[in-house]
UniProtKB/TrEMBL annotation:
<feature type="compositionally biased region" description="Low complexity">
    <location>
        <begin position="1"/>
        <end position="16"/>
    </location>
</feature>
<feature type="region of interest" description="Disordered">
    <location>
        <begin position="160"/>
        <end position="204"/>
    </location>
</feature>
<protein>
    <recommendedName>
        <fullName>SAP domain-containing protein</fullName>
    </recommendedName>
</protein>
<feature type="compositionally biased region" description="Basic and acidic residues">
    <location>
        <begin position="91"/>
        <end position="103"/>
    </location>
</feature>
<feature type="region of interest" description="Disordered">
    <location>
        <begin position="85"/>
        <end position="106"/>
    </location>
</feature>
<feature type="region of interest" description="Disordered">
    <location>
        <begin position="1"/>
        <end position="20"/>
    </location>
</feature>
<feature type="compositionally biased region" description="Basic and acidic residues">
    <location>
        <begin position="168"/>
        <end position="177"/>
    </location>
</feature>
<dbReference type="InterPro" id="IPR036361">
    <property type="entry name" value="SAP_dom_sf"/>
</dbReference>
<feature type="domain" description="SAP">
    <location>
        <begin position="43"/>
        <end position="77"/>
    </location>
</feature>
<feature type="compositionally biased region" description="Polar residues">
    <location>
        <begin position="178"/>
        <end position="189"/>
    </location>
</feature>
<dbReference type="InterPro" id="IPR003034">
    <property type="entry name" value="SAP_dom"/>
</dbReference>
<dbReference type="Pfam" id="PF02037">
    <property type="entry name" value="SAP"/>
</dbReference>
Amino acid sequence: MTTTNTPTETSRPEPNVETLTLPELGQSLNKVTRDLKTKTIQVKDLRVKDMKALLKSYGRPMSGKREILLRRLQEYASDPEQWNDLFRPAKGHERGDISERRAGKSHAARKIIAQFGDKAPQTEFLPKKSGTRAAPPLTEAVKAVNNAWVKKVLDRSLPGGGMQSVVDKTEEHREQPEQMNTDPSTGTTVGDRETGVQTYGMGKADKGITGVRRLEKRVVDLNRGVLSELGEVKAQLHSMHTVMSAIGQMSPHPPPQFQATLPSRSVSYPETTPFSRHPTGNLYALRASSGSACIPFAPSSNMAHTSHAPQASNSFAAPSFAAHAGPSFAAHTPSFSAHASSSSAHASSSRSPSYYAFPDNASPLLSSALSGSLMTYPATPEGSSASIMPSPLSAATSALALPHGIPTKNLMFFDLDGVRIAFDKTTVPNPPQVSFADDISRLFREWHQSEHLTIGGWGIPIKHWGWFYKKRTHIKSHAWDVIRAKWNKWKSIVEERERFASDTVLWEKYSDPSGAHLNQQAILVRLQNNREADNKWDAAAALKFFGNDLTRQETHQYFMYRKRNIVEVCQKLEAIARKWRELLAEHPEIAQAWARMQAEETA
């Protein structure tokens, strides 16, 4: 193939300038001379979009940066054999195999099959997971184990000789002619009258096996029926128990076993005014079961009718629940408490902070109790020892004042330092807009006690904000993404503060030469620098202790992790330092060896 250079892009190429010689598009190929017209293009004049246009016109890939595109053009320009693709016809669609369904619908397909026959079968490997694969042959050891198991089963289920009797009787039936049941009147063979199945050649042993299996099936069916009936009875008893508990709560004169006494610190109310509910809460006490997310009704046998507060017993008393109205309501409301079992209370106290949510399909009685539609009790004069009955609920936890007007599907509880707060999850506000950039001391106080976020009348400390705004509680979907970075910065500063005895000692370290306290950003920068220095020192210590080989057996594989099913070794200083600190904390022998090494170097 010969080429004729016709520079169309640049009439006169400049010296020492890189150029590309490419074939012109749209030309016809001379079959005799096979000459091609070409054009010369200067590389410096080409932009990325020009390179992509040229590559597209020549049928080359167009992805990549400028260096990759230029390299493709250079390779194409230096290999004229690739230019022949410009004069070849485009590839057409290849006809696939003729399936049976296609052959039945197409006349042409049927004609092809009739003329050329079916497609020749091809030998292919079977898939690894296929139902047609043959089972592996049984070895003599496996056969012996299976025979022993069958013998044990037959010995237990069959009277007499077990498997040996079955074998003997089978041989006996083979030698003797088959005995058939015949009808004396007609002389014809009949089957088993109970099962309706003919028993040609069926011996007594076979009948025994069939009878045992039939009896076993009846026992299994009976057991299932009994369990089903017991489940229904249990559900009905639970429903009756719930109704009776609610009725007992609504009664103005509760039974003695459900009576409880007001504490010695009584509250006086006017005699002319009935003892009514608080505007934002109830005086009816609930108890949340520590083992369930909902609060079921159940009678409590630990309530005694006495004129004094209940004395402490061997059982562990669960923390009291807070009313929905908040501190102001709790201050004017006598609390009701009861003893709880130690195991239940321990399970409840182990979840701090925690919450409880009522199910959507709560019973009508529970819904009415939560909405505050139950009866009220008459007034109790000051100093009186008359008893007021709280809700007779499960004795697993302590008392809780019912919130007023909260739908059951929105009711949740939060454990704030031993106080159970009831609130409506739909009323949780957005994260507060607060800043401690210029007053870090206020952050130290409000981290443990704050009023910026109020839930159910109670101020929530900043350290618990994550509970309300993280996705796992399903209260706010994307609120934690807004305050996560800010909250983590506050947490770092508070953790640094807890390393010192007081604020004064802290500010002695985090102050400028003039004595002014550093702001939030300056403290964060210094903390980050300290972390980087500690990571460098710990990483160097780990490498020194293990001789720059973190894959040794003494490392207990602390510095190794798996990524894409490939075991790799930690490379970042931060990761090595973190694993080194974990190794020293969990393996005292390594910590002692490192201490001895440091002592030897110091000596």
